Amino acid sequence: MVATLALVAVPGAAGSATAADSRPAPATDPAAVRHWNAVTTQTISANLGAMHPSGQVAVWHGFVSAAVYNAVAGIQGRYALYKWRERGPVTASPEAAAVTAAHRVLLAYFPASQARLDAEYATSLAKIPDGRAEKQGVAYGERAAAHIVRLRENDGRFEPVEYTAPPEPGVWRPTPPAHAPYLDTWLGTLRPLLLEAPDQVRPGPPPALSSARYARDVNEVKTMGAKTGSGRTAHQTETALFFGGNLLVQLQTAFREYAAGHHLGIADTARLFAAVNMSAADAVITAWDSKLHYGFWRPISAVHLADTDDNPATEADPGWQPLLVTPPHPDYISGHAAVAGAALRTAAGVLGTSHLGLNVRSEATATTRHYAHADRFNQDMVDARVWGGIHFRSADIAGCSAGSRIGDWALRHYFKPLRKAVPSGARTTLPKCPS
Q: Which segments cross the bilayer (predicted)?
């Protein structure tokens, strides 16, 4: 699958005041967008916990990024707005609009963090020259935030969604050590941000318990994902641990560094975060839809109860433990792989290259890895979840593939330049998933 460079950012300034207007140009520092992305991460972590094992983090980042994108794009006029028609005055400060939009959305959803958010907001506004441009930017940012909040009303957040499947062979059940109930089932029925329905790109079912592919999945994770006595190399163990934390936090940090290092302007920075985070949010929704629909058991259950799967190629080991603690929701599909597939494919489309050169840090291992190409990131993600003992390879591959389809949809329908890109004769090869 390829995407043309029509989606690539077009250099150049947005609409500006007339030559006769001697007022200084409105503030447009892209560092403000990067800073409020970091504030968003910190706010979500403070309210949910830094290691929250759900995909909620992507949803909140998606909401904030959508508002910031509209606030900036609506003033600079370079990119199509997200489900909104209200343009801002070209004399307004995109920087003031961006920080206001982020502040208001976070305040709407995380009121317990108001004191800290208000302090950050005051600091951000203090960096912007007082005057008409700032006031216009603040007013437009408020409207951009209010639009997203209204747009997401009655979207299914926190609705009671019951999981009632009986614990038969192949069916998910709470896993050791906590035996926690299914976490955030409502994510599987949440109204997407970009897709038209949670099941729009739902993949086909996982391998049948009686199949050779299922046996391969079980035996691979049993060997390579064991906490002790595994067949992993030291590098493979480090890879599993590297991606054992909060992927959304890793992506935010990596793309903040990318945006700064490549000197992206405020519109392109806001567009990048919107593309990454809104597609990631829909990847979480897609993953939870699939988890809820198929309810497939995790490797720890499959290995412990292999004598019930009617597959002669698997053998039970009641004492087997995975390297990582199994999250409290079903196996199929992998949320991590879906998020990576969606975020990187969409990012490659808007940036015009899959050679992203991302520096990705892991708090779990306190190390940083350089990923020159998105394909390598996707491969490591698929492998990591198997080597961590918490996903079957089929769930990872299906997750990455679903994420790529979300990215394709996002690139076809959103974040498009309003001015024609300069023809280059080149085409962008988008990242692929392992097969």
A: none
